[in-house]
Design a protein that fits this description.
Layout: E1 4-10, H1 22-25, H2 30-43, E2 46-52, H3 56-64, E3 72-76, H4 85-94, E4 98-102, E5 124-127, H5 132-145
Parallel strand pairs: 1-2, 1-3, 3-4, 4-5
Helix pairs in contact: 2-5, 3-4
The protein binds 1,3,4-trihydroxy-5-OXO-cyclohexanecarboxylic acid.
Residues 13, 76, 78-79, 81, 102-104, 106, 113 line the site of 1,3,4-trihydroxy-5-OXO-cyclohexanecarboxylic acid (DQA).
């Protein structure tokens, strides 16, 4: 199958990681998560391409661009994970397999965070493991794409 191209899509407020509510989201920045994921990707014969936007429309446009350009994706849609049918539809439109990631355990938080509208279309969901969740999700995605299940 060769080197796998993995897109990492991050939604609103994830550019504030490191500063934002560290008791919930940890002290690592998105740049640090990206650096770690790049070294894990190299180990797995994969590449990761990071994207972050606070805007739902820009996220939809980015997902549309994945068609033919990515073998799989990791998605932390931030609060849009709880509401965005548009993002779910974008993934359905491009048929790119993805794993959903949340740093916090959304199921242990407020009820309005329990509903995950993308999750039903995902290979799997990783939540509550902090920044390691991105690494766990990448390892799981690559295993799945290489059909070692
Ligand atoms: C989050 C959880 C969401 O509920 C929240 O809106 C975020 C971050 C997480 O990674 O834990 O922005 O996706």
């Amino acid at each position: 199958m060769g080197t796998l191209r993995v897109a990492v899509i991050n939604g609103p407020n994830l550019n504030m990681l490191g500063i934002r509510e560290p008791a919930i989201y940890g002290s690592e920045t998105l740049a640090q998560i990206e650096a770690n994921l790049k070294s894990v990707a190299a180990e797995l014969d994969a590449t990761v391409d990071f994207f972050q936007s606070n805007s739902e429309g820009d996220l939809v446009t980015q997902v549309q661009k994945l068609r033919g350009a990515a073998d799989g994706a990791l998605v932390n849609a931030g609060a849009y994970a709880h509401s965005s049918l548009a993002l779910r539809d974008a993934f359905a439109a491009v048929s790119v397999p993805f794993v959903e990631v949340h740093l916090s355990n959304v199921h242990a938080r407020e009820p309005e965070r329990h509903r995950l509208v993308l999750a039903g279309a995902a290979i799997g969901v990783v939540c509550g493991l902090g920044s390691y969740g991105y690494e766990a999700a990448l390892r799981g995605l690559v295993r799945n794409l290489r059909a070692v299940k």
